Structures are given as C-alpha cells and as structure tokens.
Amino acid sequence: MPTLNTAARAYAATAAARSHRDQEADxxxxxxxxxxxxxxxxxxxxxxxLADNQRLWTMVLDLLRDPGNALPAPLRGSLISVGLCLQRxxxxxxxxxxxxxxxxxxxxxGLAGTP
Length: 115
Fold this sequence. Notes:
- The chain is mostly helical.
- The chain has a single domain (4-112), classed as Four Helix Bundle (Hemerythrin (Met), subunit A) (Up-down Bundle).
- It contains five helices and no strands.
- It is globular and about 40 Å long.
- It starts with a helix and ends with a helix.
C-alpha cells in the first residue's frame, strides 16, 4: 500500500517536470473550480472555497509587494489592484463566486499563455 512519503515523492517528481508558471496556473484553475462547485455544495463548502481563495490571494499580494519581485512595476501594480478588488469582494455578505472564479481562471490562462 502506498504511503504518504511515496505519494509526496511522486508529486515532487511530477512537479519538478512542470514549470513554475504551469504549477501556478494549475493552482488558480483549481481554486476557481472549487469556488464554482461550492455554489451547489452548501454553506460549508462555500466558506472553505472562499478561505482557500483568500489564502491564495493573500500570498499573491505578499509576493507582489516584495521589493525583490522581478515583475515590471506596472504589471505588479495591476495585479495588486485585482487582488485588492477580490479581497473586497470576498469580504462582502454574499461574495460573487462566479466573478471570483472567472478572475482566477483568467489569471490561470494568462500564466499558461492561452487566450
């Protein structure tokens, strides 16, 4: 029977073969999908999906604000604006899950280089 260590090694080997951009795009896609699915899965799923999205965007904003970030300043500024907009939306009484998921999917498409 596979152990957790075996699964972790398999994941690490697979992740090493993919670019960071591909891995980042996959994360945005997954969080977007969880947001969409949570609409039909009840309050607990919705709260968890929003918490996952909040963690994702908090991390993204922290990385974008890092003085050592190599992205061009105008792009960093635009992404920070998007992140702050999403954080405001997530703090409303009834966050628009479709909007949040769509933004994540657009970010994923940009990272993956797809239209």
